[in-house]
Amino acid sequence: MAEAALRIEGLSKSFGGLVATDNLHLAIESGEIHAIIGPNGAGKTTLVAQLAGELKPNAGQVIFAGRDITRLTMPARAALGLARSYQITSVLLNFTAEDNVALAAQAVAGHSFRFWRPARSDPALRQPAREVLAQIGLAERADTLAANLSHGEQRQLEIAMALATRPSLLLLDEPMAGMGREESGRMVALLESLKGRHTILLIEHDMDAVFALADRITVLVYGRAIATGRPDEIRNNDEVRQAYLGEEAIDA
Predict the structure, then answer these.
(1) Helix 151-163 × helix 123-135 angle, to 10°
(2) CATH superfamily ID and name for 1-81+168-252
(3) How many CB atoms lie within 10 A of CB 73?
(4) 128 CB-contact burial (10 Å; exposed 0-12 / middle 13-18 / buried 19+)
(5) Which of the given ranges, 78-87, 127-136, 224-233, has the highest pLDDT on average?
């Protein structure tokens, strides 16, 4: 059997008496979109923070591409091909869309931002940035300040910044947060276009998007995985119905 892109083995994280991640075991297969869903306070963002290297677990291991990365820093993980987005847009508002993507490419290469001014004219950064913007549908907005992009476009730009680091695995924390129906539809189409080219771990509250995109879904409740399976299996899981989705949400 092929090595999973990402394996989580016995991962645990507590904040005082609050257990945020409870002895979690999970395997993310190469090329799949694996969604993590659960109610507020389930530990989804805490999990992503541990996978990205922002938080250190109290116990357990994170294995990425066959390598134990549990104690590696965020930059070291990025260099290995792991990239993440955040619930709150993290673009640089006073830079253009192209600048933001080029900065992401420069940062993962280990260059300091103090060298950014001469790098703005570096074709080794500019051309890949334009290509990524074209890939996600923002080519015509390349010279627009990020502050002047719509909320949906800023979320697309954040995906572009992650893609500029040439990741094999994307950790996406609620990429559709705050979007209207039309913007969410564009984001779903964008993520669908990445399917198979990148392994994606998706944290998302939009159940329509989750069931449209995910190959498999894991349901977290109080930091514990109560179910993992295909979308149809999750829809029909009685424990999931009772703990989170509810009859109405699943049948919608």
Answers:
(1) 130
(2) P-loop containing nucleotide triphosphate hydrolases (3.40.50.300)
(3) 11
(4) middle
(5) 224-233
